Amino acid sequence: MRPDDRRILGAVLAGGRSERFGSDKRAALWEGRTLLSHSVASLRAECEAVVVCGGAGAGALAETGTPVLADRPGPDLGPLGGLCAALFRAQETGQHAVLSAPVDAHPVPHGLAELLGFPGPAILAGHWLFGIWPAELAHDLERHLLSGNRSVLSWVEACRARRVEFFGQPPVNLNTPQMLAALEDGALLGEGAQLHALRELDFATGSAQEVARAVPVEIPVAIELNGIGYAVMMATPTDLEDFVAGFALSEGLADTTEIGEVHLHRADGGWVARANLPQASMPRLLERARTRVSESSCGICGIDSVAAALAPLAPVAARPAAGPQAIHRALSQMRDHQHLGQATGAAHAAAFCSNHGEILLLREDVGRHNALDKLIGALGRQGIGRDRGFVLLSARCSQELVEKTVRAGIPMLVTISAPSSLAIARAREGRLTLLALARDDSALVVTDPHRLF
């Protein structure tokens, strides 16, 4: 069945008790609208019809024309009771499937139905209530609930739902007013930042608590000058016209007053920026386009398309084995190994640490990418298994550092500074365990595919 042939019923799962939130989450405001209205609007864009599965008290919150369904086969069955009611409604009205979304997780991924695919049940990995469910599962789910199973995970496993990875901005579970406030604040930053729900790992107790954190957006920007693919730069997608003008000046190609209008076009996963330079710039432009090499081993300079910059990343096969105490131990020892950094205050370090937290090798360089390349090279030259420990970096966690670690087959990366949005997405794609903002007492668990923490 082709996607455009499907008849889909959208179901907003809105029957939670909101105990941690302190008030009814369905009526909480985000960008001047209720969370319920955001969810309904997102599903309406993809579905033939939408229902609200909200149990008692949801009727007053449903938008005009949006039916409210009571849980089935009875009340107080959690989100599965609402999903069961939606499946039976889909059977009654002739829809092939139900596309579900919880009311308290935003933003809803754009193109959710196409992302999840059909036929067969499927869920977003890590967000089990975003799912697509064949209507024919209605009686199976009812029997599942009547047998005493209320866990969403139990149903996911029982119906063998596919887990679909999503590498865009993940939805944030709005369990507290603080999480909602963080989402509101993040929206004010526009395309410059994304809000991610991460976990803060306490080294003393080994426990992790969910926190919301804004991370800067990092995407590839392909720069085309006079029709020539000049370079792809990783950048935050704000003020891109200024970026192109300043880039052309700093490259010695033209003065900012000589640059024509900058035209911006969205590409898959990035932007293409096109501009014309004066004819006098052509010799310099052609020479630099032929010979342009990276001033550091960032792995991006010289690439001439967005697609090349976002080439598929094969997942790491190895599993990490280091725990909180090992990370804390490595952090406490790293400074003593940074001889160049101590002497100059201007060098990055990349350390390979055993699963017990012992620093086995450390390399330094003025460039954070170079330091990591030196470390990976040293591991190979000395015959040290790259899958038998983790990397600790004294640097910002950028996309290229994540990719280098994944390609080296190292299962875990710990960085001193914060990640970018693309670093998070690529770590998820590469199934890399990633911790950031590592300090004396804690670190942020950014990705944890093997549930180590």
Quick structural overview:
The active site is at 298 (cysteine persulfide intermediate). The chain is 30% helix and 26% strand. It has 453 residues and is α/β, with parallel strands linked by helices.
Topology, element by element:
Layout: E1 8-13, E2 29-30, E3 33-34, H1 35-44, E4 49-53, E5 68-69, H2 79-93, E6 97-102, E7 105-106, H3 112-116, E8 122-124, E9 127-134, H4 138-146, H5 152-158, E10 162-164, E11 172-173, H6 177-187, E12 193-202, E13 208-216, E14 219-225, E15 228-235, H7 240-250, E16 263-267, E17 270-275, H8 282-291, H9 306-309, H10 324-337, H11 339-344, E18 348-354, E19 359-365, H12 368-381, E20 389-393, H13 399-407, E21 412-415, H14 421-429, E22 433-436, E23 442-447
Parallel strand pairs: 1-4, 1-6, 4-5, 8-10, 14-17, 20-21, 21-22
Antiparallel strand pairs: 2-3, 6-9, 7-11, 8-9, 12-13, 12-23, 14-15, 16-17, 18-19, 18-20, 22-23
Helix pairs in contact: 2-4, 12-13, 13-14
Subcellular location: Cytoplasm
Function: Required for formate dehydrogenase (FDH) activity. Acts as a sulfur carrier protein that transfers sulfur from IscS to the molybdenum cofactor prior to its insertion into FDH.
Keywords: Cytoplasm, GTP-binding, Magnesium, Molybdenum cofactor biosynthesis, Nucleotide-binding, Transferase
Biggest sheet features: 8 strands, mixed
Strand content: 25-35%
Total domain units:
3
CATH class assignment of the largest domain: Alpha Beta
Give the terminus-to-terminus CA distance.
41 Å
CATH T-level topology of the largest domain: Spore Coat Polysaccharide Biosynthesis Protein SpsA, Chain A
Low-confidence stretches: 293-302
Keywords: Cytoplasm, GTP-binding, Magnesium, Molybdenum cofactor biosynthesis, Nucleotide-binding, Transferase
Organism: Qipengyuania oceanensis
Domain MobA-like NTP transferase: 10-114
Function: Required for formate dehydrogenase (FDH) activity. Acts as a sulfur carrier protein that transfers sulfur from IscS to the molybdenum cofactor prior to its insertion into FDH.
